[in-house]
């Protein structure tokens, strides 16, 4: 349990998007995502996927690991010190979040470059 309050950068937040998708509060979803369930379809994802959550995320790391286990070519990372929306956290957590995503993308691009065929004449 995180004992300090979550400090999000309000300049990066969109209350309209939150209310539309979730509703007034995330503990009782009433928005467009109320009945959204795709857990049994995760194996259909065919691109490299990063399943990223925070140490103090409402979506527990064990649940995120289960999600990642269902997606081929996925990686699960739990960001230390972060809550549910690491990209909205105040510094230094936001920069750490961006770094995790950047590192994941660099690993995928490097891997794909090693496995792509060389152009003719190269």
Estimate what percentage of residues fall within beta strands.
5-15%
SSE order in H/E notation?
HEHEH
Largest sheet: number of strands, sense, barrel closure: 2 strands, parallel
Mean pLDDT: 88
The stretches of 5 or more residues where confidence is low (pLDDT under 50) are: none
Verbal overview:
- The protein has 122 residues and is an alpha+beta fold.
- It has a domain at 40-114: Alpha/Beta hydrolase fold, catalytic domain (Rossmann fold), CATH 3.40.50.
- The protein is 33% helix and 10% strand.
- The chain contains 3 helices and 2 strands.
- A two-stranded parallel ribbon has the order 1-2.
- Strand 1 (49-54), helix 2 and strand 2 form a beta-alpha-beta unit.
- The radius of gyration is 17 Å and the shape is globular.
- The protein starts with 14 loop residues before the first helix and ends in a 7-residue tail after the last helix.
